[in-house]
Design a protein that fits this description.
With 435 residues, the protein is an alpha/beta fold. It has helices at residues 41-51, 70-77, 94-100, 112-120, 126-133, 146-150, 152-163, 189-201, 254-265, 293-304, 334-337, 347-353, 370-381, 421-432, and strands spanning 2-5, 28-33, 55-60, 104-110, 138-142, 167-168, 172-175, 181-185, 229-234, 239-240, 246-247, 269-274, 286-289, 309-312, 319-321, 341-343, 359-366, 385-390, 402-409, 412-420. Residues 230-435 are annotated as: Phosphopantothenate--cysteine ligase.
Length: 435
Amino acid sequence: MRERDASVPAGADIAVMSGSAQGPHAPAILLCVTGCIAAYKSCEIARLLQKRGVDVTVAMSEHATRLVDPLTFRALTRRPVAVGLFDDPSDPIKHISLAQAADVVLVAPATANIIAKMAHGIADDLISTTLLATALPILIAPAMNVNMWRAAATQANIEVLRARGAQIISPDAGYLACGDIGEGRLADPCDIVERVMAALGSKDATERAPRSRGKGTDGSVSDSLAGERIVITAGPTYEPIDPVRFIGNRSSGKMGVELARAAYELGAEVTLVLGPTTIAPPEGVCVERVETAEQMLRCARSAFADATALICAAAVSDYAAAEPAAHKLKKGTESLESLRLVRTPDILAQLSAEKGERRVIGFAAETERVVDNAREKLQRKGCDAIVANDVALAGSGFNQDMDRAWWVGRAGVCDLGFIEKRDLAFEILRRAYQL
């Protein structure tokens, strides 16, 4: 990570990701399928990965074989399907060979049971033993009943795995096989594949494989945004009243940081214009540290001059003190009790007016009439789309890991559900590059 203060001219040292090396071998993935009704969707995941040039090997739990016949995966992958620890006499330590033969491991669907085993180091079948034996990057796509997903034990296990470096592809919300409604449905196979491709692209061992660059022919984000230069604003702004007081808001900067991380992982050159926050910026991006709305506008405009897209995720303070004091104002003074405010610059509107054919995405943090207010903001600001989120909902919004989000574009509204910020970042990038 490289950081610059707002006083340093922007755009001077934006990093460029080097292209991947070419080589003769395709990237390889071990797909672990566990006993959930969503196991049938793993067939589609395997097929989509193959279309992206990935070699797929499948391991199944005994319970998964009751839902999908291993012959299905064998026909799709043209490879043997691993089920039991001792099924293959020619390979008496199958869990070790599986753990070493791939570049990335994907567990999809991941039941509450396998998640618990992984979190606590239990190895009592082929999949759990292989997962314990591997040092590879692991992606986990949970799928289960909403109450099982929300259970304190499951959430604690998820946090343990996330802390150890596993990537969690959060489940979608909707109608579940059991008839309940809520989170727990396996994420969309296309979204899972995008996350796998990003993981393959960020792993040095797989750089030997030729990979497609930029956007796919259908406009979707592929495993790389190489050639794209993206500016992202994040965090709050602080407008000084005096040396110890300021006007600000509750934004933590988490969403913007996740957007910067996701864009960098997909190969883009990223400039993150970051307001005051304790959230650590991701490695590899160019970071512009700012405090006020004026500083953020200046840095964002300079970086946007030669960028291809702008995502305004920052929560910019709407007002600033007209005349900030040079010393601390005492209680009871007229200047503090009758503070005169002025509007801060409208960063989203100003840069949308300058965008030309480039993409500009804004955010709307709302507490009521979320979608209606976002539609109105889209018209006022002149940007291409607004990501609306309900910050009044418990567990969503400022300083949270989740958002209740909607994509509000000129073509219509898409309900993105209650979604983890990291997953939302990839979804925003995918939709932005479909425009």
